């Protein structure tokens, strides 16, 4: 869970406004820039100016948080070193936090549950790169390393500088490290812009002079981002922009001798392993830890020649910005924490013997392959594993081309069963784990083999002599599949399906029984299934659904189709009532009683020697599919079908996982999930269980709730077997097996938490190989999410869907964000606590998601004017972006049990790309694509009718396009396009009016890079009773408004109250923001001139126009109307400004400094039941997105003066928090100290 809760709402960002409004942060998700462990008890994290404490011994939950650095980001956390024995009961710890030009002292008490500030915030004249505790005569002092290669000694109580020293080489530093227990012996290590390290002593400067450089360490070819020193070994580690980590032997730095270590330091090792820049490095005994922009944390084995011993990956794109490693010492290893650019925090437990292993906790690229040393006749062809977890704990079953079955158990191979000639050269095999008896109860299984002549041999692994030979027709058995029964008491058996000739699938129910003579099989034939005519007519996947109205079978065939068979009891009950008995029932009863059974020459029981194909051809003796999705997984076949909580999950060799349900009309595809690029051969879908560290995740889902489960994808990527997490976009396991054209069996971990900890058994060139899993327990091998990450790259757009849950703590705001990582994220934000929960991640886009819009619907009706709190909501979401791609989804948001936790079901409605036709052209490489790669820049809803929704899009190729999307037809249709602007169209916005006769007038505003805004009259298209066509659309705009000198990035349009609804016309307010940083507002008068087609003819005229030339110090990227006449704007200058539109023009109501960098999008709304933000007591909400996400609360203040925040501390609205500016000219010591 993402927690952006801030216990203390600082008034530093709250700005006083003439309208007595205040803005404060309600939730924040930004890149994590600082991490530090406090012993083995707590983890301190810094995101933006907020310091958060996680208690590691209490399910690793955030215990408290506090905003401490005003508008600065936290870049370092330094706990005060403890000397001597300390009490373990209710200890107090002092912590110094720094970032930017700010330093602050804090106290952590009550076992990590309470944070409080000690003194004011100290602002320095230069950027602080490192802060260290040093000893002083009257108490501890702070040594600060500054960005311009200087250091100062700071009194944290008085907030004054005691000493200042600069280096003779006054260059800019990218990183610095201050070492030493006192100021006189301290050593500063700086990473310069000249790609080298310099070492000098701040306390060694002459009075009135500067300190010389005493050591210089060249070698890096890029700037140095991070430094770490370990005194026990005398090692200094540096991480650089050149993707390398260097370890230097420098000796004792900052010791009592006051020297700079060895006079001739050497580079001990250069470590290359990262794919991008390295941001952070840490040292521990025998280990080097590094993290970088590639999102990986590498554990380097110093004793193993500097190789990568383990890779920890758990963040989405954007890289790892912060790294912390605990000291360990409790006998259980050490903690490793990583903070990502996605705002997520991951925690691993490593150390001791686990660090010495070669396994990888996050990405298993270095999996050890073990040769099981197969011993037997012939060449292994098919392999299967019975058991959970490690293959050593289960049974490995192998079938050879000699028709023999071998069993690997206890490190030895043994002949299990020997088949006849019909099982030689060709044989298909499948094993099923069942509940057994005695010591081998967990490893008991059933083995089924299909032959070339229609024979199907079934036997238990513990007693092969109790086998049964079944007949699946006279022809070749294409496949055998086991299906576990869902009824009670079926744990010792299952259903067996064998695909024979001409699409006939024979079925049996097989159960293992314990008799006096040993194990025996009870076989009951079932009605066969008949597949539709097609090529490759056999089953490859099947799942059994036990429903009250009858059993359902969902099957996938080799042609890529999904089929639904219904096994109703009505037909059989009718025949029983007439005194008849089904032939299959009769034969099954006779087989069970021993009436129809014979023995072959090997003594195996042969059931049903008659021609079943002839009997099945009789009318009514086979089950026909009641629903089918032909070729839904392409032509290469379906590989997997499973069911969970009422939803179906299918995978195929088209690279897609489809989520389906059984609806009234049959099988319905809800959405499609693609794997990573290049991973086309998918084999399985593994469902993940929730982590039990999160109390909310442990809430039990009701049976058949229809909530989509969290899953990972198993398949092949080139020559590697891969387990892929589509949500985190990371590879959990990778085994070099040679590709998918081989027999294999994957053994996931039995608890379902760490899918990357499973093992693979496969056959390669006649050798049975197995991957060696890590052997670690899941709680130690896997990672723990302290906070889930959002988009690792920039968030370009945000859209609000509505609110679910009860008022107060149970209220959740549902948002959707789209980012540069090509994904959509559905979020639930609890404003009261700042908690943020990721409900779903959609990865259907192939390029950047630039714009979003949503139509909220309840029970199929449009409901855009109300915002009442409900237990569930439904919305139609449309996203658009690069490669001219649009996606439409139906989102169903609902509560979850008594906790009221929201859940999300995503249903894919339609998809569209402008160049789909060109992409489908043959020999398109011989043609020239005339249009450049079009991007959708902005989207707006023109009309949200019940049958279809009209959408207007601004396109980079200079066009304004009008689409309709129908949920019933499931597709987009291009209705109209105009190239009036002849240049990139950046923004678009609609406005709807009513004339004096009650006719609706719809206007569309489009803005381009030339600074002009065009107004289009779309009334005829929107009001037409017939399906909209291009003939109804306008050919040219009815008005053009010059507003900016350059591109217009954003528009906000609303109807002014004066004159609205009268016969003499209305007024439209048009606000715009551009690349020139200007905010412009134009009042457009709409005059109705008699009756025309579809209503009155209109005349538009600009009545007045105002502008603020420098509304922001950077391009204005987003503008929204919070209430009529009240605008909210934002820009990459990280300011959120409120503007009031009056009769005299625009006036700024205040500005709030946001903690989100590169602000790109806004979303605003008024809280339900509160009203508009125009009078006392009203409240509104603003969401800013960019490099993160921030939720702001806008409130009206009645007193206009001092106010009390939630912590009871009195603060002034609009005033800054008490702050001390540290001046270098006001020192408490004389020059002799310097």
From TrEMBL:
<dbReference type="GO" id="GO:0030488">
    <property type="term" value="P:tRNA methylation"/>
</dbReference>
<dbReference type="InterPro" id="IPR001680">
    <property type="entry name" value="WD40_rpt"/>
</dbReference>
<keyword id="KW-0677">Repeat</keyword>
<feature type="repeat" description="WD">
    <location>
        <begin position="217"/>
        <end position="248"/>
    </location>
</feature>
<comment type="subunit">
    <text>Interacts with FTSJ1; the interaction is direct, and required for 2'-O-methylation of position 34 in substrate tRNAs. Interacts with IRS4. Interacts with STK11/LKB1.</text>
</comment>
<comment type="function">
    <text>Together with methyltransferase FTSJ1, methylates the 2'-O-ribose of nucleotides at position 34 of the tRNA anticodon loop of substrate tRNAs. Required for the correct positioning of the substrate tRNA for methylation. Required to suppress amino acid starvation-induced autophagy. Enhances the STK11/LKB1-induced cell growth suppression activity.</text>
</comment>
<dbReference type="InterPro" id="IPR051973">
    <property type="entry name" value="tRNA_Anticodon_Mtase-Reg"/>
</dbReference>
<keyword id="KW-0819">tRNA processing</keyword>
<feature type="repeat" description="WD">
    <location>
        <begin position="271"/>
        <end position="301"/>
    </location>
</feature>
<dbReference type="Pfam" id="PF00400">
    <property type="entry name" value="WD40"/>
</dbReference>
<comment type="similarity">
    <text>Belongs to the WD repeat WDR6 family.</text>
</comment>
<feature type="compositionally biased region" description="Basic and acidic residues">
    <location>
        <begin position="569"/>
        <end position="604"/>
    </location>
</feature>
<keyword id="KW-0853">WD repeat</keyword>
<dbReference type="GO" id="GO:0005737">
    <property type="term" value="C:cytoplasm"/>
</dbReference>
<protein>
    <recommendedName>
        <fullName>tRNA (34-2'-O)-methyltransferase regulator WDR6</fullName>
    </recommendedName>
</protein>
<keyword id="KW-0963">Cytoplasm</keyword>
<feature type="region of interest" description="Disordered">
    <location>
        <begin position="569"/>
        <end position="605"/>
    </location>
</feature>
<dbReference type="InterPro" id="IPR011047">
    <property type="entry name" value="Quinoprotein_ADH-like_sf"/>
</dbReference>
<dbReference type="InterPro" id="IPR015943">
    <property type="entry name" value="WD40/YVTN_repeat-like_dom_sf"/>
</dbReference>
<dbReference type="InterPro" id="IPR036322">
    <property type="entry name" value="WD40_repeat_dom_sf"/>
</dbReference>
């Amino acid at each position: 869970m993402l927690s952006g809760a801030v216990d203390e709402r600082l008034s530093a960002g709250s700005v006083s406004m003439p309208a007595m409004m205040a803005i404060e942060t309600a939730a924040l998700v930004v890149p994590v820039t600082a991490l530090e462990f406090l012993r083995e008890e707590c983890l301190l994290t810094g995101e933006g100016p907020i310091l958060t404490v996680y208690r590691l011994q209490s399910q690793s939950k955030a215990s408290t948080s506090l905003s401490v650095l005003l508008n600065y980001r936290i870049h370092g956390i330094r706990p005060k070193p403890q000397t001597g024995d300390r009490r373990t009961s209710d200890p107090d710890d002092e912590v110094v936090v720094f970032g930017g030009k700010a330093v602050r002292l804090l106290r952590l008490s009550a076992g990590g549950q309470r944070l409080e500030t000690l003194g004011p915030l100290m602002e320095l004249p230069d950027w602080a790169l490192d802060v260290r505790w040093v000893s002083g005569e009257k108490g501890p002092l702070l040594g600060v390393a500054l960005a311009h290669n200087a250091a100062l000694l700071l009194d944290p109580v008085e907030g004054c500088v005691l000493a200042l020293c600069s280096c003779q080489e006054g260059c800019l530093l990218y990183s610095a490290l201050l070492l030493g227990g006192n100021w006189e012996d301290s050593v500063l290590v700086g990473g310069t812009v000249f790609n080298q390290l310099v070492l000098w002593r701040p306390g060694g400067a002459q009075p009135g002079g500067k300190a010389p450089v005493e050591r210089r360490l060249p070698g890096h070819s890029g700037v140095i981002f991070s430094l770490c020193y370990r005194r026990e070994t005398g090692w200094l580690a540096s991480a650089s922009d050149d993707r390398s980590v260097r370890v230097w032997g420098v000796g004792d730095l900052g010791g009592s001798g006051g020297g700079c270590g060895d006079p001739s330091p050497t580079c001990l090792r250069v470590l290359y392993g990262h794919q991008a820049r390295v941001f952070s490095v840490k040292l521990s005994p025998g280990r080097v830890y590094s993290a970088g922009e590639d999102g990986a944390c590498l554990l380097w084995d110093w004793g193993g020649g500097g190789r990568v011993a383990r890779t920890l990956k758990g963040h989405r794109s954007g890289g790892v910005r912060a790294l912390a490693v605990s000291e360990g010492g409790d006998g259980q290893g050490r903690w490793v924490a990583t903070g990502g650019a996605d705002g997520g925090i991951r925690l691993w437990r490593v150390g001791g013997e686990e660090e010495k292993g070669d396994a990888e906790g996050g990405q298993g690229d270095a999996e050890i392959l073990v040769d099981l040393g197969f011993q037997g006749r012939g060449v292994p062809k098919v392999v299967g594993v019975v058991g959970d977890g490690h293959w050593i704990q289960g049974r490995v079953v192998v079938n050879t081309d000699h028709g023999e079955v071998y069993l690997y158990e206890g490190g030895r191979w043994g002949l299990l069963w020997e088949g006849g000639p019909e099982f030689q050269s060709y044989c298909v095999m499948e094993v099923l784990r069942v509940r057994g008896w005695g010591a081998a109860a967990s490893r008991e299984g059933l083995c089924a083999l299909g032959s070339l002549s229609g024979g199907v041999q079934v036997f238990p692994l513990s007693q092969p002599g109790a086998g049964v030979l079944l007949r699946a027709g006279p022809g070749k058995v294409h496949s055998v599949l086991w299906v576990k029964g869902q009824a009670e008491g079926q744990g010792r058996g299952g259903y067996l399906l064998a695909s024979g000739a001409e699409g006939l699938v024979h079925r049996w129910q097989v159960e293992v029984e314990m008799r006096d003579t040993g194990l025996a099989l009870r076989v009951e034939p079932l009605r066969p299934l008949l597949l539709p005519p097609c090529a490759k007519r056999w089953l490859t996947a099947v799942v059994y659904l036990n429903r009250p109205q009858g059993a359902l079978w969902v099957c996938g065939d080799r042609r890529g189709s999904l089929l639904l068979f219904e096994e109703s009891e009505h037909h059989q009950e009718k025949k029983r009532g007439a005194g008849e008995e089904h032939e299959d029932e009769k034969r099954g009863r006779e087989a069970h009683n021993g009436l129809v059974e014979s023995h072959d020459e090997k003594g195996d029981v042969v059931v049903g020697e008659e021609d079943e194909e002839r009997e099945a051809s009789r009318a009514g003796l086979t089950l026909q599919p009641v629903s089918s999705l032909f070729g839904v997984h392409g032509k290469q076949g379906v590989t997997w079908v499973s069911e969970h909580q009422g939803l179906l999950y299918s995978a195929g060799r088209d690279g897609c996982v489809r989520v389906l349900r059984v609806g009234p009309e049959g099988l319905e595809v809800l959405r499609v999930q693609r794997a990573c690029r290049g991973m086309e051969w998918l084999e399985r879908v593994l469902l993940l269980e929730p982590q039990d560290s999160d109390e909310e995740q442990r809430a039990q889902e009701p049976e058949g709730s229809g909530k989509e489960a969290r899953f990972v994808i198993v398949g092949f990527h080139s020559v590697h077997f891969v387990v892929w997490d589509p949500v985190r976009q990371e590879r959990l396991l990778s085994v070099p097996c040679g590709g998918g054209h081989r027999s294999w069996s994957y053994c996931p971990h039995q608890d379902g938490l760490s899918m990357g900890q499973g093992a693979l058994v496969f056959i390669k060139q006649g050798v049975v190989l197995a991957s060696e899993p890590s052997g670690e327990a899941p709680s130690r091998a896997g990672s723990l999410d302290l906070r889930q990450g959002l988009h690792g790259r920039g968030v370009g757009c945000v859209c609000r869907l509505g609110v679910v849950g009860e008022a107060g703590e149970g209220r959740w705001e549902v948002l959707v964000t789209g980012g540069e990582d090509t994904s959509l994220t559905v979020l639930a934000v609890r404003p009261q606590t700042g908690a943020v929960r990721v409900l779903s991640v959609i990865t259907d886009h192939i390029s950047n998601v630039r714009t979003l819009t949503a139509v909220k619907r309840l029970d199929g009706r449009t409901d855009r004017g109300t915002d009442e709190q409900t237990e569930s909501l439904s919305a139609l979401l449309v996203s658009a972006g690069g490669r001219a791609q649009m996606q439409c989804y139906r989102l169903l948001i609902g509560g979850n049990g008594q906790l009221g936790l929201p859940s999300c079901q995503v249903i894919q409605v339609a998809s569209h790309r402008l160049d789909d036709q060109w992409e489908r052209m043959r020999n398109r490489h011989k043609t020239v694509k005339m249009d450049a790669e079009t991007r959708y820049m902005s989207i707006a809803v023109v009309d949200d009718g019940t049958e279809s929704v009209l959408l207007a899009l601004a396109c980079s190729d200079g066009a304004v396009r009008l689409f309709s999307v129908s949920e019933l037809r499931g597709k987009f249709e291009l209705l109209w396009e105009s190239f009036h602007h002849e240049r990139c169209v950046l923004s678009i916005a609609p406005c709807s009016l009513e004339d004096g006769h009650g006719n609706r007038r719809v206007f569309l505003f489009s803005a381009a890079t030339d600074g002009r805004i065009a107004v289009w009259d779309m009334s005829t298209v929107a009001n037409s009773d017939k399906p909209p066509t291009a003939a109804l659309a306008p050919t040219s705009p009815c008005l053009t408004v010059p507003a900016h000198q350059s591109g217009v990035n954003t528009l906000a349009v609303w109807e002014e109250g004066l004159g609205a609804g009268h016969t003499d016309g209305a007024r439209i307010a048009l606000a715009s923001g551009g690349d020139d940083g200007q905010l412009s507002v134009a009042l457009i008068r709409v005059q109705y001139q008699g009756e025309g087609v579809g209503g009155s003819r209109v005349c538009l005229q600009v009545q007045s126009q105002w502008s603020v030339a420098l509304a922001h110090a950077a391009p204005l990227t987003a503008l929204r109307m919070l209430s009529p006449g009240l605008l909210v704007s934002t820009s990459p200058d990280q300011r959120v400004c409120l503007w009031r539109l009056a009769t005299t023009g625009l006036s700024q109501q205040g500005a709030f400094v946001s903690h989100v960098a590169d602000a790109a999008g806004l979303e605003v709304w008024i809280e339900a039941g509160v009203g508009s933000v125009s009078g006392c007591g009203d409240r509104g909400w603003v969401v800013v997105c960019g490099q993160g996400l921030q939720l702001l609360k806008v409130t009206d203040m009645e007193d206009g003066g001092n106010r009390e925040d939630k912590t009871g501390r009195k603060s002034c609205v609009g005033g800054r928090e008490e702050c001390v500016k540290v001046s270098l000219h006001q020192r408490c010591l004389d020059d002799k100290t310097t």
